[in-house]
Amino acid sequence: MLGRIAEASAVARLLRETASGRGGALFVVGEPGLGRTTLLRRILTLDDTVRAVYLAGAAAESGLPYAGLHQVVQAYRCDLPRLPAPQCDLLGHLLATGQRRPEDTGLAVGAATLGLLGAAAARRPLLPAIDDAHLLDTPSREALLFVARRIAEEPIVLLLMSDTSAITSALPTATTPWLFGEIPGSLPRASPGLS
């Protein structure tokens, strides 16, 4: 954890804010071998009042639509009945078939994912932590980025860890290089060097 104090402190701050019903997302980007997974495993132990769940992208599943989202839904499946029927049905269909129906827009998928996490967070603050996010399939990554931009008023801390090779083009950008912080309407990022 040497040299990772800034990243751990940023997550600890976000976790403290979940007690007052606020949340946020943090994207940590760095080259392979710099300790992203070690940092993530340490972060998962920072606060035992939140429901921390470890998820990971996998190269073997990066071409399977909604494979990453399947992990998220499985982790919070006990909260599916708390969703409105159309959102529950949409997530069920996606996970069963790996395909959207014509009426299931990207907005609807993102909203259903946000609804599921919100329902779970109503019982206990959440820390879904996704390692190797650059290996997530595109539809899952898009749904999670949609959620990341909308959880400021939810007791949810979404943590995404990625190497610099694949995901940076899919991230919202800011005109200033942000180390950490809340960027309205976009996702906070950690610097590529993980200083």
Q: Briefly note the structural class of the backbone.
A: alpha/beta
Q: Strand order, biggest sheet?
A: 1-4-3-2
Report the sheet-strand fraction: 5-15%
Order of helices and strands: HEHEHHHEHE
**Can you count the helices?**
6
Tell me the radius of gyration. Answer: 16 Å
Helical content band: 25-40%
Quaternary status: single chain
Largest sheet properties: 4 strands, parallel
- Poorly predicted segments: 167-195
Approximate shape: globular
Kindly state the number of beta strands: 4
**Average pLDDT over all residues:** 81
N- and C-termini, Cα separation: 11 Å
Short description:
The protein has 6 helices and 4 strands, in the order αβαβαααβαβ. It is globular and about 45 Å long.
Account of the 3D structure:
This protein has 195 residues and is α/β, with parallel strands linked by helices. Helices cover 36% and strands 12% of the residues. The protein contains six helices and four strands. It has helices at 5-17, 36-43, 67-75, 85-97, 106-121, 138-148, and strands at 24-29, 51-56, 126-131, 157-162. It has a four-stranded parallel β-sheet with strand order 1-4-3-2, sandwiched between helices. Helix 6 links the parallel strand 3 and strand 4 (157-162). The longest helix has 16 residues, at 106-121. The radius of gyration is 16 Å and the shape is globular. The termini are close together.
